[in-house]
Amino acid sequence: MSSLYRLRAITRPHNLSPHRSLTRLSLTQPHPFRPSPISPAQTNLSPPQQSYSTTTTSPENTQPQHQHRQQNNHHDQNQQSQNEPTPPFPPLHPLRLLLSYLKLLALAHLIWNNLLSLAPAQGPSMLATYPITGTWHLTSRLSRLGRNLSIGDIVTFTLPDRPSAIGVKRVIGLPGDYVLIGTPGPAADDALMLQSSITYQHKQQVPEGHVYLVGDNLPASNDSRIFGPVPLGLIRGKVIASMEPSFTRGPFANFEWVRNPMKKTEPPTREEVLAARDLE
User: What sequence ranges are listed for the domain Peptidase S26 (predicted)?
Assistant: First the structure.
């Protein structure tokens, strides 16, 4: 048996050897368990190319998209402007600040000289209408120079004998009116006795361009009975309100509007005129 097997092994052709067939196959085909060798041409790898698809759109389709983009841009800008903090006001230039103060002073000067003015008053000449001290008068400058005055109005004026002082008196005579001028007699505490003590001396007509002013407290008043009728050019305004400011009750304490107590009357009769002549 052994000789037979030997013969067969010697007579087997070489091309049928399993080892040679395997080596030949390994040179031509990759081994299933070994990685294939990389050629030098495959070392420079390029990134994968992306494919883009382009679609052609008509102008009718692009216009709404463009408008939508603009709306989105405006919306984003509005949100950014709302989120951004508001910057503080820049400091004013000194010249501009000075100009604003000058405008304010000019406006106050215009109101003070043409519309309203406020001034204190003191003295016993307007008792018992106003106290001696502590009264402030709100004056309408629209009635300066004697415009729109009537009998019984309280006015402020520049004193003819003291141009630096301002007086407060009541109008009892307009241009062209006749005024019975009297001087008060001895001082009396009772108002009725004071009225009966007045003795009329003479009658005077108020000249044109003048008014006749007297105080409510006749015995202690320096008025037209002493310095004569007052020119209309010295009238500063008509008192429309009065107040008594104080630290405890505020600046508008006892504020009240001034009303004219006089009423328009009929002209005197002939008998009253004759009686007035008899008193002269």
Answer: 97-180, 197-241
Q: Check 17, 21, 39, 125 and give the catalytic one.
A: 125
Domain assignment of residue 193, yes or no: yes
Q: Which of 143, 169, 238, 242 is catalytic?
A: 169
169 part of the active site: yes
In a domain, 136, yes or no: yes
* 2 counts as catalytic: no
Supply 73's token pair: 């841009």
Q: Which of 86, 205, 226, 80 is nearest to 161 (CA)?
A: 226
Asked if 181 and 201 count as a contact pair (C-beta separation under 8 A), the reply is yes
What are the tens digits of pLDDT across the range 45-87?
Answer: 555 555 545 445 454 544 555 565 666 666 666 665 555 556 5
Query: pTM value?
Result: 0.54
Write out pLDDT tens, residues 120-179: 888 888 888 888 888 899 999 888 888 889 999 999 999 998 888 899 999 999 999 988
Would 269 be classed as within a structural domain?
no
Q: Which CATH number characterizes residue 155's domain? A: 2.10.109.10
